[in-house]
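Field notebook, page 99. I keep forgetting to write these up properly, so this time I am using the form the group agreed on. The chain and the ligand, flavin-adenine dinucleotide, are recorded exactly as supplied. Prediction of the bound pose follows.
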Amino acid sequence: MFIGATPCTEWLDGQLAADDHGFLLTGDDVPPSALDHPGQQPLPLETSRPGVFCVGDARSRSIKRVATAIGEGSMAVRLVFDRLEAMGLAIADLDGADP
Ligand SMILES: Cc1cc2nc3c(=O)[nH]c(=O)nc-3n(C[C@H](O)[C@H](O)[C@H](O)COP(=O)(O)OP(=O)(O)OC[C@H]3O[C@@H](n4cnc5c(N)ncnc54)[C@H](O)[C@@H]3O)c2cc1C
């Protein structure tokens, strides 16, 4: 039956790039033509819209396991700071410190 294999992303109404099954594309998987800001390469876990990240099962090509969903969520915290810093909105100096 493959219960739970359909992502609940339809509410986004195409605002973020997704694969043919509705899983959101992130990082290098986002085609240049789908970028909200052409030329601005998404960070890992970042969607086609700068500053919007996707982790866990809803993300295209994710591993679909509890441990990886949690790990990606932890990574996203740092990556959000990286994006804000790149936009000049935050100073991220998280080395050795909890965000
Ligand atoms: C039958 C089955 C068995 C599995 N067995 C294992 C296993 O043995 N080991 C393992 O590691 N993994 C297993 N998995 C996979 C694991 O459950 C998932 O990888 C993990 O739960 C993903 O976490 P997530 O936070 O990305 O998504 P989810 O746990 O699916 O959480 C997403 C949440 O968002 C909510 N949501 C959806 N849309 C909206 C919305 N518009 N607004 C607000 N909330 C919304 C949903 O209700 C849900 O609570 C199994 C999955 C299934 C379906």
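OBSERVATIONS:
- The pocket of flavin-adenine dinucleotide is lined by residues 3-4, 8, 11, 56-57, 64-67, 69 (CB under 6 Å).
- The first helix runs from residue 66 to 86.
FOLLOW-UP: compare against the apo run.
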